Amino acid sequence: MPEKNFTCDSENLRLDHFLTDKLQVSRNQITELIKKGLVSIDDKVVSKAGTKLKKGQILCIQEIEKNDKSIVANVDFDVPIVFEDEDILVINKPPFLTVHPAPSVKELTLADWLKAKNISRSTISGDEREGIVHRIDKETSGALVIAKNNASHASLAKQLENRTLGRYYLALIDYPLKDDIIVDKPIARHPKNRLKMGVVKDGKNAKSAFCKLLTCEESNIELIGAKLYSGRTHQIRVHLNAIGRHILGDDLYGFKSQKAKINRVMLHAYCLRLIHPKSGQKMNFIAPLYDDFKEQLKKFFTEDKIDETIDIDNLNSRFNLFN
What we know:
Elements: E1 3-7, H1 15-23, H2 27-35, E2 39-41, E3 44-45, E4 58-62, E5 81-84, E6 88-93, H3 110-116, E7 141-147, H4 150-162, E8 166-173, E9 181-184, E10 187-189, E11 197-199, E12 207-215, E13 222-228, H5 235-242, E14 267-275, E15 282-286, H6 291-298, H7 303-309, H8 312-320
Helix pairs in contact: 1-2
């Protein structure tokens, strides 16, 4: 198994602090490595992230091996690739594809597709989440970046924390916004429905920006853009619900009657912005809309108007108003 070794050069340092600095990854990632028994001091496996170090001790960190037996042979779908080099892979996640396995997930996932395609992936997050830095909901489509090595994963995770990695979302909602708006309300698990998240007084800080893009006067359906300043579960849907708006097809936060007409949430991660982990170059990637989203748009707006509105320069200028 590949491993890295370090010699402690100071006295009384915390183990997780020392390794966070040496490996340039987040403390949560270090804690996961320790929990998995992959960190040892002087050949003894340690289990506590707060272990105090002594000068001269030798630390060994084993990297997680890829489990070839976990490769899925019968992946019968493909995923559009937007960009790929030796460090990152940007994909356009189809709707109804779950990102990574969980006890409640019975179908194949994006993680299975990555394994079946033998795409190089980071190992920081463990076998089931190799390379996966962030996620989007099953019904949501759009841009997602995969880390192909641990250095890229560490860089992208930090960008996610400081929001230099971000996305512009497009959504169709059931009633127009009064104005462009920032919603800054804490989010946590809904106290009465464990399937939902909600605006909860003692929840985690959450901030979203929404801008009006196209409004259909006949139906009141509106295309909006969304930008996140935090990354909470269901954040866009929860914050829209908090201001009395709902995404078409969202029967969890919206109306169950919509599901008969629209079979998924009309939410798409359209533009992904990041800094390349190796070159330091600022990069923008566009994930084209899927046909079901385009068909809904064409019910309310002309194709020329749609193309003009979702032009990346137009979206940048709209969201720059929030900065």
